[in-house]
Design a protein that fits this description.
By secondary structure, this protein is an alpha+beta fold. 60% of the residues lie in helices and 18% in strands. A 3-stranded mixed sheet has the order 1-2-3.
Length: 144
């Protein structure tokens, strides 16, 4: 911003000096016109920068898919914990890994850690998650 203000001040100052030095006539009108155009271009430069698309920004995606996947993963994990608590009355810690690929978000894997060691409950939850069409399922008891 400091450089912009210095540039604008210098161009305006130069325009005033040139218009005072140039004698009257056709050359004066042309020179004043050119200097005014230069001042206008310098003053609107920040506005044109808004619409400028650089090659760096064209290569980058518009969305942060890693962040969106993390938010989806956290939300899915919380919802799965609530669902398993409600359905099986089992305190557990769930980790749903959501990934982005082929233009859509997909569940990559599911991990469920149950707070109690109950082989029957582990297999029941595993089968339930398969029915829900989850893939790469891991259900295990918490080790103490």
């Amino acid at each position: 911003m400091k450089i912009y203000l210095l540039t604008a001040t210098a161009v305006i100052f130069l325009s005033v000096i040139v218009s005072l030095i140039i004698p009257e006539g056709k050359l004066n009108k042309t020179t004043v016109f050119v200097m005014r155009m230069a001042c206008i271009f310098v003053l609107i430069q920040p506005i044109t920068g808004i619409f400028k698309i650089s090659s760096d920004s064209a290569d980058k995606p518009l969305y942060d898919y890693q962040y969106i996947c993390k938010v989806y993963s956290d939300n899915q994990s919380d919802q799965l914990e609530k669902l398993l608590l409600e359905k099986f009355d089992a305190e557990c810690v769930c980790a749903v890994n959501v990934v982005y690929g082929d233009g859509q978000f997909k569940v990559g894997s599911v991990s469920v850690e149950i707070n109690e060691e109950n082989g029957e409950l582990i297999s029941t939850i595993y089968e339930y998650l398969e029915e829900l069409k989850y893939i790469n399922i891991t259900v295990y008891a918490k080790s103490y």
